[in-house]
Amino acid sequence: xxxxxxxxxxxxxxxxxxxxxxxxxxxxxxxxxxxxxxxxxxxxxxxxxxxxxxxxxxxxxxxxxxxxxxxxxxxxxxxxxxxxxxxxxxxxxxxxxxxxxxxxxxxxxxxxxxxxxxxxxxxxxxxxxxxxxxxxxxxxxxxxxxxxxxxxxxxxxxxxxxxxxxxxxxxxxxxxxxxxxxxxxxxxxxxxxxxxxxxxxxxxxxxxxxxxxxxxxxxxxxxxxxxxxxxxxxxxxxxxxxxxxxxxxxxxxxxxxxxxxxxxxxxxxxxxxx
Amino acid sequence: xxxxxxxxxxxxxxxxxxxxxxxxxxxxxxxxxxxxxxxxxxxxxxxxxxxxxxxxxxxxxxxxxxxxxxxxxxxxxxxxxxxxxxxxxxxxxxxxxxxxxxxxxxxxxxxxxxxxxxxxxxxxxxxxxxxxxxxxxxxxxxxxxxxxxxxxxxxxxxxxxxxxxxxxxxxxxxxxxxxxxxxxxxxxxxxxxxxxx
Lengths: 274, 197
Description:
The complex is a heterodimer. Chain A contains twelve helices and no strands. Chain A has helices spanning 3-11, 17-29, 31-66, 104-129, 135-146, 160-169, 173-186, 191-203, 207-218, 228-239, 244-257, 263-271. By secondary structure, chain B is mainly alpha-helical. The radius of gyration of chain B is 19 Å and the shape is globular. Chains A and B meet through α1, α2, α3 and α6 of A and α2, α4, α5, α6 and α7 of B.
């Protein structure tokens, strides 16, 4: 079979498991084949790159058309009118009626102001008398604020850990988990991979598996910083089974009392009512 | 705010997985529907409007890719999904603004992405060759291919199958498209190698 066709079939997923192994073997043993593969990939990447540029140019044009006052002033051939009827952001290109002059608009605002006042009162009452948030919502909030992205090392060389982190940051969680787990299989002492495996499991709502990773981490006495108790607590808050909330509080308290890693975050969570 | 008052997420997704004009229209609808994110990029992440627009365009392109390849599972609304991507990309952009990545790196990164299914050892062999490639020469050779060849290769890179290309470009069968496409690729490879060596 012609090399390019063989490569094409590989990327189309047409090869069997054995053929895929053979494919990888050929990359290692046949430099000219590896070069053809690099050529194939470069061509695909360049074409994709061009397609993206083309789409971006189209989107930019759309944006300029819909937002004539942004991105450097008025649209060619159109001056911004002085009245109030020029389309604003979010108007979806429908022409608005010019606002009536004088007292009219203020009068129209009264019902909204009254509704806003009522809303403020309701929120105030709720804040005074409510019993606080549920632990899983607090955990959600924490995950949203702190765990949407994992730190990336600034380097031109991207190792397997960095690639897994990149997958995580692109929200490709199942792929990130496989990559972190592969790393752990190769080197079971990689604490970072274990922490991240637990975090991905937590985000994928595989709570028991996440707890398992964090407990394994807890047993690792070689670490200078060990956030395992904090993450166990967060997982319990998120799982929120009977008794989980109480156990989570105890663990957070332990983090604070023993001055462990993530102490400040634990303190902040303990201050909330849940 | 939805892309259009009369269009649901499901319809947009459905149209994105079609080909030709319907897909293009759905892409534009998706872009228009949430373009107020650009303002958010300026306000929340202190990006210049030009950068925020670029990030937003990247967001839409990435979402389209995920939707068309079946990676979007529909566990959240399109708006939530897009905002999550947008947020991550804004953070990346802020990091990128402090480094000096150029276009070649972007293309190399794309090639690297395509390699993700290989083992680390095989990947590093190919990666070394990707890094040594001359993208400028390849781009120039690509520009010299005939219009039909370029279009066929571009459609394939955009995720069209040979069968869909056959319909879009009026070829008799998918097999004819595959043969012609690989022939175009071979021609490109030869002209690239002549110039490179």
